[in-house]
Design a protein that fits this description.
449 residues, alpha+beta, BirA Bifunctional Protein, domain 2, Rossmann fold, 2 domains, eight-stranded mixed beta sheet, five-stranded mixed beta sheet, 18 helices, 16 strands, aminoacyl-trna synthetase, nucleotide-binding, Histidine--tRNA ligase, protein biosynthesis, ligase
């Protein structure tokens, strides 16, 4: 049987791994510059930990893990006969692969809050899994790179995360626009339109605007039994100006007497104003009133990052989730976090040719193999190079030089070293630059200096 990969997963070559590490290293450096410390959580969680945290659509995309042993024997016969998958899931699956890093982090905080110093800042770089439909930039297994702060309601955290996003992408040379909204504004809009009881339906549809357009959003709202009168009241959402503060001023007028909507406007106004004062441009930071991110746990600011020079979905996102730990029995621990989409960032950088040449590491010296005695002498030199942090290797077989040349060229090794019987007897080493063809003879002392 010919082997194959599961859909939505990938193998990574050495070149790809090096480039992914290039991105991760920049993100990790910036996380730590901003005061975040590392954390890792298990690949799978109790299913009850994950369900009910991502909304109806998110719950469907959670990968469930079958219980060990004869799981079918413990199920109810009537549920098998009725093919009731929802009832069967709870009987045959107690664990699930993590859907994101935020909910496991909230679970960690709920379990360890008594030993924490607040505000607690952590970053996490690990894979997550979603039973999504694979397509360009969307995988079933992918890495998230998250930074979260819990234990603070200060809006300066939002300002800090804006800076973290833009600094990191600037160092990756990826031009981005950071879209910002506030969940309270969305709740205010629902109240303004008289559809507060359909807030989730409203936000899930609105979040798809860039994919299905205004007509698609309106159609979906009608399908969710949101009346035309309410939709007409929200029509201004699709005709926003380029000036963020002007749009907020317009909302202030519409939200008179609307407490939650007004709070959202005031919070967003603070974040935008302070960010602009810190030198961030309006081109880099945009108020996007249609940004909804259909996740149930956001309560305040919502972030989404998009690359400006290539057609790609969001390459980062996050928001404030002040109530998340409450579902684990721990109240009054507000939180906010952002995520960098490593895989999509990689695709953007690859498409735009943004990876520097030195992001892929290669062995610097390949020593030609002339036989057992010469190989032993070469290995002694190689050991001294490695002690200096210089990569080197010995061709493993005493093969024809043409074969050894070909190996070096295919691996991108720039220097081929000849250390045969004559060189050893004379205490010299011959190094050939495979790019220029230049050949240099040195003493072993000069070579190792």
């Amino acid at each position: 049987m010919k082997p194959s990969l599961a859909k939505g997963t990938r193998d990574f070559s050495a070149e790809e791994v090096y480039r992914r590490k290039f991105i991760i290293n920049i993100l990790q450096k910036n996380f730590e510059l901003f005061g975040f410390q590392p954390l890792e959580t298990p690949s799978f969680e109790n299913l009850s930990t994950l369900t009910g945290k991502y909304g109806e659509e998110g719950d469907r995309l959670i990968f469930k893990i079958l219980n060990s042993g004869d799981y079918a024997s413990k199920t109810k016969e009537e549920d098998w006969s009725a093919k009731n998958s929802q009832k069967l899931i709870s009987q045959i699956s107690e664990k699930a692969l993590r859907y994101d890093l935020t909910v496991p982090f909230a679970r960690y905080v709920a379990m360890n809050h008594g030993q924490m110093t607040f505000p607690f800042k952590r970053y996490q770089i690990q894979p997550v899994w979603r039973a999504d439909r694979p397509q360009k930039g969307r995988f079933r297994e992918f890495y998230q790179c998250d930074a979260d702060v819990v234990g603070s309601v200060s809006l300066w955290q939002e300002v800090e995360l804006v800076q973290l996003y833009l600094k990191s992408f600037a160092e990756l040379n990826v031009k981005v626009a950071l879209h910002l909204n506030n969940r309270k504004i969305l709740s205010g809009l629902a109240e303004f339109a008289g559809i507060s009881d359909q807030l989730i339906d409203f936000t899930v549809a609105l979040d798809k605007l860039d994919k299905i357009g205004k007509e698609g959003v309106v159609k979906e709202l009608l399908e969710k039994n949101i009346n035309q009168e309410s939709i007409d009241k929200l029509d201004f959402l699709f005709n926003q100006s380029e000036n963020a503060l002007e749009n907020l001023a317009q909302l202030k007028e519409k939200f008179q007497g609307n407490e939650i909507g007004t709070n959202g406007v005031e919070e967003l106004e603070f974040v935008l104003t302070q960010s602009f004062e810190l030198g961030i441009s309006e081109e880099s930071l945009k108020f996007d009133i249609t940004l909804a991110r259909g996740l149930d746990y956001y309560t305040g600011a919502i972030f989404e990052v998009k690359a400006t020079d290539v057609a790609m979905g969001s390459i980062g996102g996050g928001g404030r989730y002040d109530n998340l730990t409450e579902v684990f029995g721990v109240k009054n621990i507000p939180g906010i976090g952002v995520s960098f989409g490593l895989d999509r960032i990689y695709l953007v950088m690859e498409e735009l040719g943004l990876f520097p040449e030195d992001s892929v590491k290669t062995v610097q010296y390949l020593f030609a193999n002339y036989g057992e005695n010469e190989s032993l002498a070469a290995m002694k030199i190689i050991g001294q190079l490695r002690a200096k942090g210089i990569s080197a290797e010995l061709y493993p077989e005493s093969a024809k030089l043409k074969k050894q040349f070909t190996y070096a060229e295919k691996k991108g090794i720039p220097n081929l070293v000849f250390y045969g019987e004559q060189e050893i007897s004379e205490g010299k080493i011959t190094v050939k630059d495979l790019k220029t063809g230049e050949q240099i003879i040195q003493t072993t002392e000069e070579f190792l200096a």
